[in-house]
Amino acid sequence: MLWILLMARLLAVIRDNKKHRKTPNIFSMLSNYIKTTVRNLRRNKVNTLINITGLTVSIACCIVVYVFIKNEKTFDNFHSKASRTYRIVFDDKTGNNIEHGGYVSFPVAKALRIDFPQLENVTQVYVRNYGVIQIPSANDTRKLFDEQEITYADEYFFKTFDFQLLAGNKDNILKSPDEVVLTKRLADKFFGKEYADAYNRVIGKTIIINKKPYRISGVLKDMPRNSNIACNMLLPFKDFERNNAATMQNWIDTYSEHYVFVTLPENYTPQQFDKALIGFKNKHLPGEYAKRITWHPQLLTKVHTDEMYGGTYYATPSVLIIAFITMGIIVLLTACINFINLATVQSLKRAKEVGIRKTLGSRKYQLRLQFMIETFVLVLMASAFAVLLANWFLQQFNQYLLFIVDLGLHIDFSIILFLAILGLIITFFAGYYPAKVLSGYEPAKALKGGIQAKYTSFKSRFSLRKVLVVTQFVVTQLLIIGTIVVASQIKYFYSKDLGYDKTGVLNVEMPGNDEQKLELFRQTIVRNANVRDVSFSSGPPTSAGNGFGNIRLPEAPAADNITMERKFTDNNYLKTYKIQLLAGRDLWENDKVTLSDSAARYNILINNKAVTALGFASPEKAIGKNIIINDRDVATIVGVTKDFNNAALQNEVAPCVLFYGTNWVSTAGIRMNRINDAATNDFIQKAWEAVYPDNIYKSMPLDEYMHKKAFYVLEDIMYKGFKIFVVLSIIIGCMGLYGLIGFLAVQRQKEISIRKVLGASAKKIVYMFSIEFLWLIGIAFLVAAPLGYLAMTSWLQGFAYRINLSPVYFIAAFLISLLIATFTVSFQSIKAAVANPVKSLRNE
Amino acid sequence: MIKISDLEKVYRTEEVETVALNKLSFEVKDGEFVAVMGPSGCGKSTLLNILGLLDDPDAGSFLFNQIEVAHFNERKRADLRKHNIGFVFQSFNLIDELTVFENVELPLIYTGVKTAERKKRVEEVLDKVQIMHRRNHYPQQLSGGQQQRVAVARAVVNHPKLILADEPTGNLDSNNGNEVMQLLTELNEQGTTIVMVTHSEHDARYSHRIIRMLDGQTVTENILI
């Protein structure tokens, strides 16, 4: 703002002067300023280096944050019909509880097309996400590929979304159930370089996906990563329809990752459509559901950042975005503080120049402008370096943070505008105060060297300098506290007793439910002496998404249903994972059941949490009792297990039902005597590949799987981010401190010399310097500790299982900042302390 | 050109009050060369700062070309200063980051002289003080006498009506000192009014009139010509 005022003032003066025929030639003035600036920067090399480095790093951080956020905010806005395209979302109201979701049941899309002929287009996608692909080749050594991000899309897909085809015909694609559309990346991977840029030759070739042949009908340009529906391969929705006839008629069951998009015509508002959807759901949903559920259109470009209805696969939690913005601002703040400190402390050196310029007729605003321009030149140089650095940062960012986005730096108008605005903001924040101080010097005093060290002294009780240095220490200490706490919480995750034994178990992904194959695999591997137990299940004890359902006592009304997690296991599950049985017995071979659509009776295990939730007095009391699962199946409790963490530690242990179900096997847990035995692992892999020759073997020790796969991705990213920003902000802060002390030491050289002449030892002088900073670090700690406590307490609230905030974390942060500061200060103060006093006294 | 009457200036700190000028009055006519002498602390420099519009008086009147300027605001003072007054200091006060040429050019930039005209005038004046050959040097690369000649060049480049010189030879040896005094005399002969503060009786003899000060007041005036 003030910058604008200053510019306006400048323009007014130019106009004013034109009237009076006394134009101070603006270009001559600017060139004079820039000349002085450049020579000044060259002369104060250390100072310049500190400022440029700090500004470069912080501007680079800001660019990274900007690119990250821009990527977040531009999801799917590149489709020409984006402003008229909506996702159908639902609200499901039961009692006082409303659930939201961005997915709908399968018949919706077709019915919309029939009931709303005025809609420009309706399309649906179903993200399938996994497949094993074989490329038949001439010499019949079949190549296997394991691919992610496979999506079913219907023939209307390209009428809504502007993904570009490199080969194939948009209007005639995805219409038959046996075709497939590949991205360029996959086409290159499957067929090699010889087909690159000649994708027409790929059309018509057959590839085998999950053992079924598909004919390639199109090759897509790789989809931009800022799309919610980006994928690697499109399968025709007709293929899904063909194999799921019943699901296609089922209006009640919904599947996450199944999305319906409508494109409204120009003259049809989303409000009108929203209203019309009421009649639509009343027509199609059965009575009770029609009352509970409402459907709404949600603008396509809002999908990604929406937390209520849930984004798609690529959604980034807002806490992460806020964390990154905050850290960007913090690093920037540190660099600005450095700049202000160094500029004001150096201002005494510039006092003479100010005096001369004023004597020669310079006005205050001209001087202010001059010093602002100096700052601006520095910021400009830093911005140029920052662009290069940011590019490198982004490459690291993509790799190091294992990000689900693919960020790149593209120099376009928006980033230049961003840099320009950022540059002006930094110039103003960093440059305004020093410019004000400098331009305010009285010329007569400045020339006589009579400017008191008012702005540069540490003596006065409250100087801006002190406030700035304290602020810097507060920031540093906060970041250190944050890092320590996040690291401790993550360590706690990995070391907490989960209620079962996660060590010594190999986790192997299984491709299907075929009982004969499973049995064959089991029998082969148990022959190895190193293998102790094998269990097939829907997932290890701690795993997300094993299916949820409801349980209640037979006599209780449906309203009393309790949400539970349902695990498909077998009679070896407890043994393999060493889960303790509190009452009753384990599952037996004859408890095995294959679920179908009709009601069933079977035996189950429940965990202790479910015992309490169902209202049994003790585990023993639950044994032999029946409960109702999903308002349909009657299940008899035959055993109760001790609670184990079935969900990630952000969440409480949930009520859990384990039963011997054959429908869903995705994991084999293999307990071994020695987990890292290469021969055994090799043996298991060979056995597996013999049973499943068309699939790709994937295994990982369970504890490693827990680290890598699933649960603490966000915390991990946060921790890594914290570490980076801590290091950056400490380095920038230290550089500033180093420069600051250097100047103060020079300034106080006379005092130091007199003290030395009077008998002070070098040690005393170093102490004298250090003690001032120790005070400031102490004051900073008084601010940082409660702030850090509040921030970290609120962060830890997000975890059902969390560490206690011990004072040790805070003391450690204090000591670390103390150590760093002392180290930095001592460099310069020792230099000042051992200097020959006679030299500096003579200079006086 | 200058008429001051009953000029007062008091410096105050928390504990001490120092009277720098005590009802000082005198006049300087157009084309005069006046030397101001007196012991340290008698108020000479304060007087020069007020005459140069670098400082305000607390009371009294200051007529510059018949205009009362005692209470001009900073903007007006800066305007008046840059068009009418040139300064020469004991410690030269050149800007270290600018070359000889750029230092001398600076007042012309502030008064808005066009580039070509600036070049011409700067070269003219550098020629006059015989420092043309060092035009692209930085002040640190020059001897004291050379630096002071640059400072004089800077003071006169704008054709000021008044030059204020604060012990212009104080940091120079006698040869260089005489050269600078010669320069000032020439300028005076061409019509520039000069007020010079000095400790040197030798230098004072170059002037037309010596004003002797003590404790913020004029004690005597010696007319030399």
Automatic annotation (TrEMBL), chain A:
<feature type="domain" description="MacB-like periplasmic core">
    <location>
        <begin position="48"/>
        <end position="277"/>
    </location>
</feature>
<feature type="transmembrane region" description="Helical">
    <location>
        <begin position="49"/>
        <end position="69"/>
    </location>
</feature>
<feature type="transmembrane region" description="Helical">
    <location>
        <begin position="724"/>
        <end position="746"/>
    </location>
</feature>
<feature type="transmembrane region" description="Helical">
    <location>
        <begin position="413"/>
        <end position="435"/>
    </location>
</feature>
<feature type="domain" description="ABC3 transporter permease C-terminal">
    <location>
        <begin position="724"/>
        <end position="836"/>
    </location>
</feature>
<protein>
    <submittedName>
        <fullName>FtsX-like permease family protein</fullName>
    </submittedName>
</protein>
<feature type="transmembrane region" description="Helical">
    <location>
        <begin position="808"/>
        <end position="827"/>
    </location>
</feature>
<feature type="transmembrane region" description="Helical">
    <location>
        <begin position="766"/>
        <end position="788"/>
    </location>
</feature>
<dbReference type="Pfam" id="PF02687">
    <property type="entry name" value="FtsX"/>
</dbReference>
<keyword id="KW-0812">Transmembrane</keyword>
<keyword id="KW-0472">Membrane</keyword>
<feature type="domain" description="ABC3 transporter permease C-terminal">
    <location>
        <begin position="326"/>
        <end position="443"/>
    </location>
</feature>
<keyword id="KW-1003">Cell membrane</keyword>
<dbReference type="GO" id="GO:0022857">
    <property type="term" value="F:transmembrane transporter activity"/>
</dbReference>
<dbReference type="Pfam" id="PF12704">
    <property type="entry name" value="MacB_PCD"/>
</dbReference>
<dbReference type="GO" id="GO:0005886">
    <property type="term" value="C:plasma membrane"/>
</dbReference>
<feature type="transmembrane region" description="Helical">
    <location>
        <begin position="467"/>
        <end position="487"/>
    </location>
</feature>
<keyword id="KW-1133">Transmembrane helix</keyword>
<feature type="transmembrane region" description="Helical">
    <location>
        <begin position="319"/>
        <end position="340"/>
    </location>
</feature>
<feature type="transmembrane region" description="Helical">
    <location>
        <begin position="371"/>
        <end position="393"/>
    </location>
</feature>
<dbReference type="InterPro" id="IPR050250">
    <property type="entry name" value="Macrolide_Exporter_MacB"/>
</dbReference>
<dbReference type="InterPro" id="IPR025857">
    <property type="entry name" value="MacB_PCD"/>
</dbReference>
From TrEMBL, chain B:
<dbReference type="GO" id="GO:0005886">
    <property type="term" value="C:plasma membrane"/>
</dbReference>
<comment type="similarity">
    <text>Belongs to the ABC transporter superfamily. Macrolide exporter (TC 3.A.1.122) family.</text>
</comment>
<protein>
    <submittedName>
        <fullName>Putative ABC transport system ATP-binding protein</fullName>
    </submittedName>
</protein>
<dbReference type="GO" id="GO:0016887">
    <property type="term" value="F:ATP hydrolysis activity"/>
</dbReference>
<dbReference type="GO" id="GO:0022857">
    <property type="term" value="F:transmembrane transporter activity"/>
</dbReference>
<dbReference type="InterPro" id="IPR017911">
    <property type="entry name" value="MacB-like_ATP-bd"/>
</dbReference>
<dbReference type="GO" id="GO:0098796">
    <property type="term" value="C:membrane protein complex"/>
</dbReference>
<keyword id="KW-0067">ATP-binding</keyword>
<feature type="domain" description="ABC transporter">
    <location>
        <begin position="2"/>
        <end position="225"/>
    </location>
</feature>
<dbReference type="InterPro" id="IPR003439">
    <property type="entry name" value="ABC_transporter-like_ATP-bd"/>
</dbReference>
<dbReference type="InterPro" id="IPR017871">
    <property type="entry name" value="ABC_transporter-like_CS"/>
</dbReference>
<keyword id="KW-0547">Nucleotide-binding</keyword>
<dbReference type="InterPro" id="IPR015854">
    <property type="entry name" value="ABC_transpr_LolD-like"/>
</dbReference>
<keyword id="KW-0813">Transport</keyword>
<dbReference type="GO" id="GO:0005524">
    <property type="term" value="F:ATP binding"/>
</dbReference>
<dbReference type="InterPro" id="IPR027417">
    <property type="entry name" value="P-loop_NTPase"/>
</dbReference>
<dbReference type="Pfam" id="PF00005">
    <property type="entry name" value="ABC_tran"/>
</dbReference>
<dbReference type="InterPro" id="IPR003593">
    <property type="entry name" value="AAA+_ATPase"/>
</dbReference>
